[in-house]
Amino acid sequence: MRSSPGGSNDGGMPSGWLNDVVSVRVVIAEDEAIIRLDLLETLQEEGYTVIGETGRGDQALELVRSLKPDLAILDVKMPGMDGLEVAKVIGDERICGVLVLTAFSQREIIEQARDAGALAYLVKPYQKSDLIPAIEVAIGRFRELQALSGHVDALGEQLEARKLIDRAKGRLIDEFAMKEQDAFSFIQRTAMKERSKMREVAERIISGDLRPS
Ligand SMILES: [Mg+2]
């Protein structure tokens, strides 16, 4: 297992710093040394930064967890841990995009795995010209998934806030005989005055910490 800093590090501003900013950071795991080396060279030629490499599946997972690359390229059959298992964990933990390198006979398994997560695959022996598009697919899928889950989180938060504000309004209406519109503007005004969120004001009304004077 080997991990290396992306770019030169000879004090001061690393000379490759601009490259590092735009370069996609990759961890590769392939137990066949020749294929791994070939992959490494191709990626470097194409401007990718290989920040870690290994011939073992379990070490691949370690590297990905600690280095948090943009992409992991994983062979399927590797000592330590199967590449698909590694891919599944990476997917569950939403760490990065995954490109799986597979032998033709494993294609069906891969397609099942692909349907379950953010994964692209490439059948070995692959053409150099197929590698880059496959990498872009893997990274693209991961970004889509990230954007989607961020959107879902935001929607969930909005909904939660609305529920809390409704409950707080209900309390103001029931206990302080406020009209609905007044209850809402009380929450709104208080939030503005205190520079806090309406949901925080709502929480304090519900807990009884805040009451209209
Ligand atoms: Mg292998």
TrEMBL record:
Query: Gene3D superfamilies from the entry?
Result: 3.40.50.2300, Winged helix-like DNA-binding domain superfamily/Winged helix DNA-binding domain
Query: Which GO molecular-function terms appear in the entry?
Result: RNA binding
Q: Does the keyword Transmembrane helix apply?
A: no
Query: Per the database record, which ranges form the ANTAR domain?
Result: 145-206
Residue limits of the Response regulatory domain? 25-139
InterPro entries recorded: ANTAR, Bact_response_regulator, CheY-like_superfamily, Sig_transdc_resp-reg_antiterm, Sig_transdc_resp-reg_receiver, WH-like_DNA-bd_sf
Looking up SUPFAM superfamilies in the UniProt record yields: CheY-like
What is the recorded name of this protein?
A: Unannotated protein
Print the organism lineage.
unclassified sequences, metagenomes, ecological metagenomes
